[in-house]
Amino acid sequence: MSSTVETATEIRPFHFDFPDEELDELRRRIEATRWPEKETVADQSQGVQLATIQKLARYWGSEYDFGRLEARLSAVAHFVTEIDGLDIHFIHVKSPHENALPLIITHGWPGSFIEMLNVIGPLTDPTSHVGEPEDAFDVVVPSIPGYGFSAKPTATGWDPVHIARAWIVLMKRLGYTRFVAQGGDWGAQITDVMGAEAPQELLGIHSNMPGTVPPDVSKALATGGPAPAGLSAEETRAYEQLKFLYTKGIGYATEMNLRPQTLYGLADSPVALAAWMLDHDARSYEDIAHAFEGNPVGNLTRDEILDNITLTWVTNTGISSGRLYWENTLGFFDVKGATVPAAVSVFPRELYQAPRSWAEQAYPNLIYFNEVDEGNHFAAWQEPDLFTTEVRAAFRSLR
């Protein structure tokens, strides 16, 4: 019995391989895409525009270097461990500095650990990246079940609460008796839930997409009713941003929330997968479109974007990643009840700009709040230097 337990909790090195024949087949499928006609409007209101996705397909199929992705992934240490019967993949990079603060960072959809590759170095080795030794972190970046190299659940039950509890198990299994957590998108919700679980080892959390929406505002958004009376200018701005999201910008989430298995095109057509992953939110799509026009915004280049899409294609996780929406029962932007020390960074092109007043209500132990000048929903991915600065500042008082 003891050997079985040891095997089940073992931390195992993880190795990946992208066979040449699989990449050749990807190129063939891109080339064989059957295109529809152009949209009938001059903007993105009907979805991903034909010109944008065709530029992506041309670059992906003929110029993108698949060896780049393998080299980037090989530059960090990958591991797997079994938690609740499922193999969980994670990157684990320890700092060269003593007394580094252990940090677990969680990605979202349509992202992956690819989003975090450019912040691992600055966070773990600050003295090589305009930082001080006392800013050092040990960094753990897991893949959500059904994403990247983590196993795909074969039964229901892997919702954000289950994942949050699994992350706590993971950090303890790595031997950490004190750690902090960070996240955006799904990662923000998972991190908020970790803050609500409040294990004694968790010193604090940081979010770049916090759950701060008060119950009365959440109810008004759900019913389509008028905004509650007495909102400040900042709160009204947030309400209008969320109202637009819920009425015009969340079609992808609605489909995956209700019928994720129907999206077979994500497993069969690389261009269908790419278009689906590009169409997350209006502001991010605008930035991604700029990248394929040769004018990337921040670090969100066409190679970065295609690294993430390629990983999703070769792991065939287009549908398995979408099932998290079906599993979720929590209000995405609602307050989750985190009681541990919490920090919030507000990026200007996020789905909504959380007002400080809401953040103070949502996080009774708010230790840091800052509005930055650049960045969209993919904060770490698009603005890795700014993101790193925010994470350092967020947790500085907890060291």
Q: What's the story with the biggest beta sheet?
A: 9 strands, mixed
Strand order of the largest sheet: 1-2-3-5-4-6-7-8-9
User: In terms of per-residue confidence, which ranges show pLDDT below 50 for 5 or more consecutive residues?
Assistant: 1-6
Helix content: 40-55%
Structure description:
The chain is built from 18 helices and nine strands. The N terminus is likely disordered. It has 399 residues and is an alpha/beta fold. The two termini are 39 Å apart. β2 and β3 form a beta hairpin.
Provide a concise account of the structure shown.
The protein is of the alpha/beta class and 399 residues long. The chain has helices at residues 2-8, 20-31, 50-62, 66-74, 117-124, 160-173, 186-197, 215-223, 233-248, 251-258, 265-268, 270-278, 282-292, 302-315, 318-327, 356-362, 379-382, 384-395, and strands spanning 12-13, 78-83, 86-93, 101-106, 137-142, 179-183, 202-207, 342-346, 366-371.
What is the secondary structure topology, with strand pairs?
Elements: H1 2-8, E1 12-13, H2 20-31, H3 50-62, H4 66-74, E2 78-83, E3 86-93, E4 101-106, H5 117-124, E5 137-142, H6 160-173, E6 179-183, H7 186-197, E7 202-207, H8 215-223, H9 233-248, H10 251-258, H11 265-268, H12 270-278, H13 282-292, H14 302-315, H15 318-327, E8 342-346, H16 356-362, E9 366-371, H17 379-382, H18 384-395
Parallel strand pairs: 4-5, 4-6, 6-7, 7-8, 8-9
Antiparallel strand pairs: 1-2, 2-3, 3-5
